[in-house]
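ARCHIVE CARD
Drawer: 12
Card no.: 0347
Subject: one protein chain, sequence and derived structure
Cross-reference: see card 0346
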Amino acid sequence: MSSFLSSSDSSSDSDDSDSDSDESLLDLLFPYTGNLDPGLQALKDAELSSVGLPPGCAPKNFGRCRRVVGRTGNLNRNRAARLKDMLALRPREFRARYRMSIGTFTKLVNKVRAKLSAPFPKKGRAGGTVQPELQLAIALRWFAGGQMLDVAPLHGVAWNTAWVYVHRVMDAVNSTFNINFGTDVEELKRRAAEFFELSKSTVDGCVGALDGIVFKMKKPRRRDIGQGNVEENVGNYWCRKGFYGVAMQAIVDAKLRFLWLGGFAAGCTNDVHAFGMTQLAEALQKGILPAGFWLAGDEAYVCTDSLIVPYSSSSRVYATNASCDDFNFYLSRIRITVERAFGVLVGRWGIFWRPMLTTLPRVKSVIRCCCRLHNFIIDEEDRDSALPETHVHRRADGATVVDGGGSPVVWLNSFRCSRSLDGAVRNVGNRPRNQGRRSDLGGGLRDRLRDAVVAQGLCRPARRQAGGTVSGTVSGAPLR
């Protein structure tokens, strides 16, 4: 009987259990009433005697004083040693595990240390206090794509306790770091100068690149939806790509830092509607940006003097004016910045590689937290060492495609449009048709930007094939 009690009781060990409140299995099976069957009373008295207690001891005293024979105590997780081993990782291994360098990790934990040093809500922790470094490491490893059943024992905490620390880290990061789309003139000039350099001194005035992205998540619960400005249902979160998701709109700068996050909507919401429901869209219509400053977007948005989008491939002006295609190419050098930022964000945090198995409110908190961490890493580390060369177009043999000036060519669209020597526009590849769902409200600024590109004598560089020939010809003449 003693061995049965010992093995069963030892299986109830927990990282955050309070031993003072535990009761023996014998007390649960045979509650003490003071008038037990003689056989049962003798059995219980024998159990009490085995741990040095007098017969007839009340269950309350038995719980306080007992030490069951064969019981193994709470695990000594030795978190100090685990923290030492974590900080002793090689730089490359540390970055692969936590997605940042050890120096950046130290700066980050110092900024949120005060908010992570609050006492744990439960008593009786095994292994002592969980240091802020371990709390942050648990969250970063989970953001990086780790499974909590593996992350928790790696850092010396219980599985259910690790979730508490993940939520604490998310709240600390979201309350410490801000993402604000400032409209100060000096700040706008600095951003415009960065984009002007990025476009190789061709297009001036851009202060941000706008686009949307859909993050995968599990099927949302009914009680988590319908809390926004519009009536929603679960089916609205099923997007055209074949999964449940949350659509987010974002603006980034030339260094791939997020300047604004918003438009968190159901996965089926298109970009123009998701952005139109935000306060920033209303502010842009009221002229929040000074004259000459604008945002770059794709054809999903409506073109205004505050939001410049490419010329539609099916528009009449595009078909009659070859300079529109040239302008689209150089505008794409700026607009692709937001695509690169999304690529770095998703590539860095593996939690976005599969559906997030958490509630809808927590999904939004995870996205905001990862975007803030993304900005912090870029600010603290060398941008070139952290970003892959996903924006450079390469040939089949791996060689970089360059233009006439020797600069790498960035191809953004799934179709190509080039201009022949006689000025005629022709297609190279298939071009999608405009379904007429978007109309331009203004194009005066866009036309002036196009004229500036033409005045510099710039045009879309021709795509060169592996043999060195220019792809696409008209009557044997190479395309420009």
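Annotation on reverse: The CA atoms of residues 296 and 375 lie 20 Å apart. The two ends are 91 Å apart (CA to CA).
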